[in-house]
């Protein structure tokens, strides 16, 4: 008789309006059948919650499909193979996948990515050496960030932002960051080596940015949009570059938000603004893992994370992203 495993999982119960709340989600159980030929059974150890998932909870077309109502959510996870009927994976192998928000799953090798067990904590493969770290790395390539550039990073104490700042320092930039608490500002200055960091909640961003960068900035790394993008447009130098990475200030908005009132700066200062989707860079994953993995192993790059324990707290962890509850990568520990 085949053994059927029981896996807890989080499903989308209803589409959030505004900021998501617990009633939009359902903690349920499902049966996981043993792996068939060319499949592996994986037990998740850590899963990722990310701001982009909020967009997938809405109906309508975007660059990734919407989550289906009543179905288990998806997202990054790192797990251990516990049974394999594929020659590509053995029990004990550590893999990343997009089968997060659940405890166990069965998948084909093409949907699993092997990562070294030696790099600890294993959750680093969701943070500095995972999707968010790769976003930071790709973004610096996208606008060719180089030594001497003055770069301003918003959402700087989050998963993407803190790695972006550390990589920019390694490239020889002057790095300015903004984040939403005293503790985060301290983290940026003292642990990540930012030259200047400020709390965007303590006064208009444009005023604080002008003090931080009296001669202007060359690059703006936008994780936030809204007022922060407007401030950066005011402070960018001629031929400045903008990395359009995220716009978390409007992810829960119930109606379209106005664009920056000073967009005309793009013309007068001959600015370049480039959009980034990290998935487009997957063919360069080996290069990223080699370079950034090397910095991590050499102790030149910190992997900061905020860890929440248990799948039953995954929804709180996700909602917490919009409340600034995380320093570094928000991780949910499973098992
Ligand atoms: N383009 C891509 O391929 C790609 C890939 C990954 C991520 N992203 C984007 O990059 C950004 C950062 O993602 P992440 O994974 O690193 O998340 P994160 O920064 O680790 O977490 C979200 C942070 O955003 C800040 N925040 C929340 N609401 C805000 C608001 N209204 N205004 C300003 N800041 C706010 C909070 O920090 P504070 O306490 O500082 O407010 C919170 O900790 C997001 O916009 C995300 O969508 C894009």
Descriptive keywords:
alpha/beta, binds NADP nicotinamide-adenine-dinucleotide phosphate, 7-stranded mixed beta sheet, 335 residues, single chain
**What's the SSE pattern?**
EEEHEEEEHEHEHEHEHEHEHEHE
Shape: globular
Give average pLDDT, whole number: 97
Q: Which small molecules are bound? A: NADP nicotinamide-adenine-dinucleotide phosphate
Sheet with the most strands, sense and barrel status? 7 strands, mixed
Poorly predicted runs of 5 or more residues? none
Describe the structure.
This protein has helices at residues 52-56, 131-142, 159-170, 182-191, 205-212, 226-235, 265-268, 285-297, 314-320; strands at 5-12, 25-32, 40-48, 77-84, 94-97, 104-107, 113-114, 150-153, 174-179, 196-199, 217-222, 236-244, 272-275, 305-309, 329-333. By secondary structure, it is α/β, with parallel strands linked by helices. Strands 3, 4, 5, 6, 7, 14 and 15 form a seven-stranded mixed beta sheet that branches. A six-stranded parallel beta sheet has the order 10-9-8-11-12-13, with helices on both faces. A two-stranded antiparallel ribbon has the order 1-2. The longest helix has 13 residues, at 285-297. It starts with a strand and ends with a strand. The model has no long low-confidence stretch (mean pLDDT 97). Bound molecules: NADP nicotinamide-adenine-dinucleotide phosphate (NAP). NADP nicotinamide-adenine-dinucleotide phosphate (NAP) binds next to helix 2 and helix 3.
């Amino acid at each position: 008789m085949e053994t059927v495993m029981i896996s807890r999982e989080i499903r989308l119960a209803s589409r959030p309006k505004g900021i998501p709340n617990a009633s939009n989600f359902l903690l349920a159980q499902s049966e996981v059948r043993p792996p068939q030929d060319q499949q592996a059974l994986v037990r998740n150890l850590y899963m990722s919650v990310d701001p982009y998932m909020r967009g997938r909870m809405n109906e309508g077309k975007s660059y990734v499909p919407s989550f289906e109502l009543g179905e288990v959510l998806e997202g990054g996870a790192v797990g251990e193979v516990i049974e394999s009927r594929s020659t590509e994976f053995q029990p004990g192998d550590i893999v990343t996948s997009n089968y997060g928000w659940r405890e166990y799953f069965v998948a084909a090798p093409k949907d699993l990515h092997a990562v070294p067990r030696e790099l600890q904590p294993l959750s680093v493969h969701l943070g500095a050496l995972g999707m968010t770290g790769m976003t930071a790395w790709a973004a610096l390539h996208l606008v060719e960030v180089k030594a001497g550039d003055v770069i301003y990073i918003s959402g700087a104490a989050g998963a993407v932002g803190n790695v972006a700042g550390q990589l920019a320092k390694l490239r020889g930039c002057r790095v300015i960051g903004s984040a939403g608490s005293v503790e985060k500002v301290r983290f940026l200055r003292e642990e990540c080596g930012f030259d200047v960091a400020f709390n965007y909640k303590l006064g208009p961003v444009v005023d604080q940015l002008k003090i931080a960068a009296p001669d202007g900035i060359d690059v703006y790394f936008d994780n936030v949009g809204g007022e922060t993008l407007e401030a950066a447009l005011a402070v960018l130098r001629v031929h400045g570059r903008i990395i359009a990475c995220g716009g978390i200030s409007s992810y829960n908005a119930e109606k379209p938000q106005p664009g920056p009132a000073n967009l005309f700066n793009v013309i007068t200062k001959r600015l370049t603004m480039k959009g980034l989707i990290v998935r487009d860079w997957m063919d360069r994953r080996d290069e990223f893992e080699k370079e950034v993995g090397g910095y991590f192993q050499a102790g030149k790059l910190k992997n900061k994370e905020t860890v929440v324990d248990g799948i039953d707290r995954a929804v709180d962890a996700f909602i917490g992203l919009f409340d600034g509850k995380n320093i570094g990568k928000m991780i949910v520990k499973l098992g």
